[in-house]
Amino acid sequence: MSLATAGAGTTAHPRGIRVNRGQFTLQIVQVFLIGLVIGMERAVLPVVARDFGVARGAFLLLASFVLSFGLVKGTLNLVAGGLADRFGRKPVLLAGWLAAIPIPLLIYFAPNWWWIVGANALLGVNQGFASTMTVTSQIDLADNHQRGLVVGINEATGYIAMGLAGLGAAYLAHRFGVRPALLLFGLVTIVMALAMIVRVRETLAWVHAEHAETHEARLAGDARSLRATFLRISFHDRTGSALCQGGVVNKIADTLVWVMFPLYFKAHGAGLVEIGWLTGVYAVIWGLSQLWTGHLADRIGRKRPVVAGFFLLSGGIALTALGQGEELWLSAAAIMGVGMALLYPNLIAAMSDQALPLIRGKALGTYRYWRDTGYAIGALLLGSIAQLAHAALPAIWVTAALVAGSGLWIALVVADSGRMGS
Fold first, then answer.
1. Cβ-Cβ contacts under 8 Å for 25 (sequence gap 6 or more)
2. What is residue 258's predicted lDDT score, i.e. its pLDDT?
3. φ/ψ (deg, to 5) at 9
4. Of 245, 289, 305, 384, which has the fewest beta carbons less than 10 angstroms from its beta carbon?
5. How far apart (Å, rounded) are the C-alpha atoms in residues 135 and 27?
6. What is the pLDDT of residue 327?
C-alpha cells in the first residue's frame, strides 16, 4: 500500500522543500561531503593496488576492499534505519562521520592491502550511517509528491561530488602521490562535515506530525518490528522483492565501474588521469541527470524511468566491452550515467511510496541493505570471473546481462507508483 497523507503537515512542522529549505540545504551539503569521501579513492586505489602489495591479476584480492565496504554498508543501512526510527536521524549521522576519521589515516600509513580493506570497512560505516540519514531526513522534510525530486536531488549531489572527487584525487595523486593526496583530501572533508552537524536539526518531529495526519485505519503497519519489515519487503512482497533485487544489480554494475573498469582501461593504455575522466564522467552525468529524473518520475510514475534506466545501463556496459578508445568509452560512460540516473533515485522513491511514516527508516533501511550488499556480491562475483578468466572483459559481459535481466524482472512484476495525484 502506498502512503497518501492529507495536507502538508502541522503548523509547527510543515512539510515541503521550500518551507524547510534551510535544513534541506544543510542536508544537501552533508550529502556532497559524503560523496567526496567515497569518491576520492574510486579512480585511484584499483590502479595503484600493486603499491600496497597486490600482485597483477589478483582480481579477488583487489576486489576485497569493495567486498568489505559492501558487507558493512549493507548491514548498517538496515541497522541505521531501525536506530533512526527509535533514537533519531541526527545521532546516527554523527556516528557515521566519527567512524570516517581513521579512513585517510589508515590509507596513509597502510603497510599492506589489508589496511585498505579495513579503511573501506570504516567507509561502509560512514556511508551506511551518514548517507542513509541524509536521504531519510530529506524525505521526512518533503511533501509526498516531492519524493522523487528529493531523492533525485540527494543522489545527484552525492554522485556529482563522487565524480568530482575521483577526478580531483586522480590529479592530486598524479602530482603529489596517492597517500598524501588522500590524507589531505579526506581529513579536510571530514572536519568540514563534523563542523556543520551542529546546525542540523532532528527530523523525527516531522515524522510524528505526518503520522498524526494519517487515517487511523491505515496505521497497523507502523507497529512492525525491524525483523517483520525486513522479511515482508525482502521475500513476501512481490514489489518489494523486485525493487530489492534491482538495488542489488545496480550496485553490481557500480562495482564493475569501481574495480574492473580502471583495470580494463589501464590494460588498454589509459593513464591515471584518463581513467579519472572516464569514471568521473559516468558519475557526474549520473549525478546531474538525477536532478530531472526524480522529478520526472513524480509526474509519470516510477516504473517507466526505472526499466528504461536498466536497459540503458546494460547497453552502455556492452558498448564499453565492444569498443576501443577514449571517445567511445566516454560515450558509453555517458549512456551508463543517464541509465543510472533514471533507475537509481526512482528505485528508492518507489520503496518510499510503499512505507508508512513510522516505519520509513526500517523500509528504506531494508532496501538499502540489499542495494549496498550488491557491492559485496559484485566484488565476489566479478572478482571470481576475472580471476578465472585472467581478464576483466568477461566480468563486463556478465554484468551487462545481469542488468538487462533485472530490468526485465521489474518490468514484469512491479506495478507503477509515485505519479502526482495518484
1. none
2. 85
3. 120, 175
4. 384
5. 8
6. 86
Burial class (CB in 10 A: 0-12, 13-18, 19+), 312: buried
State how far the Cα of 206 lies from the Cα of 142, in Å rounded to an integer: 9
Residues present in the chain in total = 422
DSSP 234-265: III-HHHHHHHHHHHHHHHHHHIIIIIHHHHH
Where do the domains of the chain lie?
21-212+224-413
pLDDT in the model for residue 368: 85
Q: What is the C-alpha separation between 153 and 27, in angstroms, rounded?
A: 11
Which stretches in the chain have pLDDT values below 70?
A: 1-11, 43, 47, 57, 211-224, 357-358, 417-422
Of 170, 119, 176, 141, which Cα lies nearest the Cα of 28?
Answer: 141
Query: Helices 204-213 and 132-141: crossing angle, nearest 10°?
Result: 40
DSSP code, position 9 = B
Whole-prediction pTM = 0.77
Residue whose C-alpha is closest to residue 282's, from 327, 339, 203: 339
Contact, 74 vs 367, CB < 8 A? Answer: no
**What are the φ/ψ torsions at residue 4 (nearest 5 degrees)?**
-135, 110
Alpha helix (H) residue ranges in 127-146: 132-141
Q: Please give the pLDDT value at position 31.
A: 94
